[in-house]
Design a protein that fits this description.
The chain is built from 30 helices and eight strands. It is mainly alpha-helical and 670 residues long. It folds into three domains: 159 residues, 3-Layer(aba) Sandwich (Rossmann fold), CATH 3.40.50; 88 residues, Helix Hairpins; 366 residues, no CATH class. The strands form two sheets. A six-stranded mixed beta sheet has the order 2-3-1-4-5-7, sandwiched between helices. A two-stranded antiparallel sheet has the order 6-8. The radius of gyration is 29 Å and the shape is elongated. The termini are far apart.
Length: 670
Amino acid sequence: MVYALAGNQNSGKTTLFNQLTGSNQHVGNFPGVTVERKIGEIRGEKKDAVVDLPGIYSLRPYSKEEIVTRNFILNEKPDAIINIVDATNIERNLYLTLQLLEMHIPMVLALNMMDEVRGNGGTIEIDKMEKELGIPIIAISAIKNEGVEDLIHAIREVASKRIYPKVTDFCEKGPVHRCIHAVSHQVEDHAEAAGMSPRFAAAKMVEGDKEITDQLKLSENELELIEHSIIEMEQDSGMDRNAALANMRYEFIEKTCRNSVIKCRESKEHKRSVKIDAVLTGKYTAIPAFLIIMLLIFWLTFEVIGAFLSDILSLGIDALSGWVKTGLEAYGINPVVESLVIDGIFTGVGSVLSFLPIIVVLFFFLSILEDSGYMARIAFVMDRPLRKIGLSGRSFVSMLIGFGCSVPAVMSSRTLSSDRDKKMTIMLIPFISCSAKIPIYTVFISAFFARHRALVMMALYVLGIAVGLVVAIVLNHTAFRGNSMPFMMELPNYRFPSAKSVLLLMWDKAKDFLQRAFTVIFIATLIIWFMQTFDMRLNVVKDSSESLLAVVGKAIAPLFVPLGFNDWRAATALISGFSAKEAVVSTLSVLTGSTMSNMSRTLSTVFTPVSAVSFLVFTLLYTPCVAAVATIRREMGSGLKAFLVVVMQCAVAWVCAFAVYSALSMFVGY
C-alpha cells in the first residue's frame, strides 16, 4: 500500500517521515526542503510505502507545492492519507484537514507535538475530536518517536479495510450548505467519472478552480446552473464565494476545538522565542547578529576545530603516501605507474580529502542553525531588502541552500510561485559560494593570509552575496522587470536541534564529498595527470611545461594576464574546476608537484598575494560545476539559457577579478 503524508509546513512532517521510514532525509524549518515528494518503505512493512508531500496550508492551487500535493492525491490515488497536524497550532492546521476530508479518502490524523501541549497545561480530548471529524486520531511526538507505532497500525487498518471519513459536510444549514449540496448534485456523475469525490469537486467549483472544472467536462447549461447557485449563495451570505467557504470551514473548526480542546497557556518555547527574536530579528540588530553568527562559525571552522582536524588528516595522507611510494620503489615498479599512483591519485585526490573535516564541521554548525529555527528567521529578515531588488525572502531560502551546493539550491527554486522569480533566483544562485570552493579558499588563505583566515573567508562569502545582489538589481531593471510574488512563512519556535538530524546532515555531506572525491575528482585528476605526463606524441615528458596540458593552458592563459595570473597552470586549474570545484586544488597540486604540507610554498611561485586575491575572486564568481549547469538547464528548460548563465558568470567573474586586481595593484604596488 501507498500512503500520502500531508500537512502544513513546520508541522514536523519530514521528522515523522524519517521515523516512519528510517530513511536519511534531512529535516529543515523552512520551505524548500520537501519540494519534491520523497518516498520510503515503512519500517517493518516492506510492502508499504509512504510519500512525503510538500508542506502546504491549503489545496487551493496558488503555489507549485499545492498543485503537486493535490495532483498526487487525485491522480496517484494513495491507499490512505496521513495528515500530520501541529497540536500547538491546531486551529490553523485543521483548515487543510477539512479539505483533505472532502476528498473522501481513508485518512488518519496524526496530532504531533502533543508532549508540548501537555507540558503547557493543555490537552486535546481525542475521542471527542474523532467524533467531530469522523476519522481516527493518534497523538504523537515525531521528534521523540512517541506514538509512531500506533500511527502505523492505524493507517494500515484504515487503508486495508477502506475506512472512509464519516464527516465531509461541515455545515448543517444556510446559504453555503444549500450551494454545496446543489453543486454536488449537479457534478456527481462527472466527478465519479473523473475519479474524485463529488463534495471535493463541488468545493473546487465554488472556488473557481479552472483545472478541476476542465476535468469534470461539464456542459454550458450545467456551468450556468452552477454559477447561478454560487451567485445566489454570495447574495444570501453577503460574502464572496471564497470568503463564504473559508468562513464555513473556520466555524466548523472553532466548534470542533471548542468541544475537544483545552487551551494551554503560552508555552515557554514561545516566550523564549519572542525574547530571542527581539535581538535576532530586530530592526537594527538582525543583520549585524547574522554577520556575527556567521563570522563565529567561520572562525570555529577554519581557525579552530576544522583546521585542526584537517591538519591531522593531511599529515596522515602524506604519511600514507610516503609509505606507498617507498613500497613501490622497493618493488621496482615502472616509474610511470608510480607517478600515476603518487602524483596522480595521492597528490590529487588526497589533497582534496584533507578538507573533509572542514566541510563536515561547517555543516555541523549550519544544520544547528537550520534545525533550531534560525534559518527561517533569516529568510524573514531578508524579505524586505530583497523586495527592493525584485525578489522575496523565499528566494533567499534557495540562496542559503546554495552555501551547501548549487544543485539542490537550483532545484529548490521550484517552490517559487512565479516563473520570473524562479529564473531570476536560478541566475543568482551560482554567485553564492558553495562548499566545494572551501578547499580553494583554505589553500590560498593559508598560503597568503594565514593571520586573517576567518576575515578573508567571511569577505569572500559577503562579496559573493553582494555581487549577486548587484546582478539582481540589473536583471530587475532589464530582463526580469516586474514585482516578486507575496511571501508567507511561519516562524517556528526556537527548538534544540535534533542530534539525529544534525548527524544525518553531516553524514550526507561527508558521503557526497567522498563520492565526488572518488568519482568526478578522481577521473579529473587522472585526466590532468595524463595530460601533464605526456606530450602531443604521447611521449613521457621530463618537464610539465612541454605536456599536453601546457598546450591547452598556454592557449587560454592570455585571457588572465589582466587579472594577474598568466601562469598556464592557473588557467588549467580553472578548466578542471568546471568538472568539480575541488578539482582546482587537486590540479594545482599535481601541476606543482606539491603535497598539502608544502603547497603554501609552491603557490608563491605561481601567484603573488595580489594575484592570489584576484584568483580567489574569479573562482568565487565564475561558472558553477557541470552538475550545477546541467541542473540549471533542466530547471530553465533550455540549453541556450544555461549557456548564457555560464557566459554571464564568467564575464562577471572576469570583470570583478580585474577590478580587484587593478585596485590592489594601485595601492599595494605588486
